[in-house]
Specification:
The chain has about 110 residues and is of the alpha+beta class. The protein has helices spanning about 5-15, 60-70, 70-75, 80-95, and strands at about 15-20, 25, 30-35, 40-45, 50-55. It starts with 5 loop residues before the first helix and ends in a 13-residue tail after the last helix. The structure holds zinc ion.
Length: about 110
């Protein structure tokens, strides 16, 4: 991570995101993002345009909790169908058949 300049350090402090599932605050590297693009489609990734919601990386439970509490729909200003939720969940966390491996360390 390169935060050598004053500007870099400031940007680093500002690059904090809140998981909408558990409210944990973390740098974007530790989170995954789903966004509602300007045309209303859903996109996954930190660089996707539009209004976004963040979740702890490798933590489908945070996603599920946000869905249950309707926090995701609120964050994206849009209700999501169960089909959409399933697709987004699979894209964020790799789907049911891809369990998280040992690279999931701090
Ligand atoms: Zn979380």
């Amino acid at each position: 991570m390169s935060a050598r300049t004053a500007e870099g350090r400031r940007a680093d402090r500002e690059r904090r995101r809140t998981c909408v599932g558990c409210r944990r605050v973390a740098p974007p590297e530790e989170l995954v993002r789903v966004a509602r693009t300007p045309d209303g489609a859903l996109a996954v990734g930190a660089g996707a345009p539009g209004r976004g919601a963040w979740f702890c990386r490798a933590s489908p439970g945070c996603f599920d909790r946000a869905v249950r509490r309707r926090a995701l729909g609120r964050a994206l200003r849009r209700e999501l169908s169960s089909d959409e939720l399933e697709v987004v969940r699979a894209r964020l966390f790799g789907g049911a058949e891809r369990e998280h491996g040992p690279e999931d360390e701090r």
